[in-house]
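Batch job 17 of 40 flagged for manual review because the log was empty.
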Amino acid sequence: MRAAIKANWAKALDAKPRVLASSETHSATPRRAPRSPGCRLFPSCAGNLLDPRGSEMKRNIKLGIGVVLLVVPFLATAGYADEVPISGKWEGTVVQVGFDLNGDDLSANLIDAQIKGSFGMKSMHVLSEYMPVGLCDIEPDVWLFTFLFAKPILTFANGDQLWGTMENGSMCMNSLTAEFTGEGHGVYTGGTGRFEGASGTFTVTYSGKNLTLLTLGFGFAPIHGDIVGTLVLP
């Protein structure tokens, strides 16, 4: 028995060590994470599985860029004022007043009118002065007047006011019938309440008939018209 054991040990000691096949050796190449079904179509996503933090960072960056692209247009326009259309229809009276606004010996006129339109318009008052400059077209009995000065004030139902200045305009009046028509263009120059600091442009058209000019030499007439334009609110 002892002889058999010694013989086995000697046989084991004399045996050469077994060399493992290449398929059995441990590869130094790191094992690739399994791909999801989607990665079979898009191989590039394998890297995302290996580096989940990097993938999340990329998604956050893309999300941040998207938010910026959406917000920037609003920020670009936030500093601009609101531009809105404004219009109204008005009617009232115009009367020649006994004073001269600029020392040219021509009397001023005052319009007192009711107006309905944007923002709850209620009334309109205009202080103005005209100057005769010739004839309208080639009609010998139709006089042409131009604006020397005009200041409209629009008052709204809540008491707010919108002010303006006429920049140019003209009026034609028939010297036989005392009927007149005119048009003017101007700018808004502020106001009170919601119209404080407002600006914009307007066009006014009007017509009427002077009831006393031919008989008394003094102007007093019914008048009506329209005003349209654009208002810029701060």
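Reviewer: the log was empty due to a logging misconfiguration, but the result itself is present. Residues 1-50, 67-79 have pLDDT under 50 and may be disordered. Unflagging and moving on to job 18.
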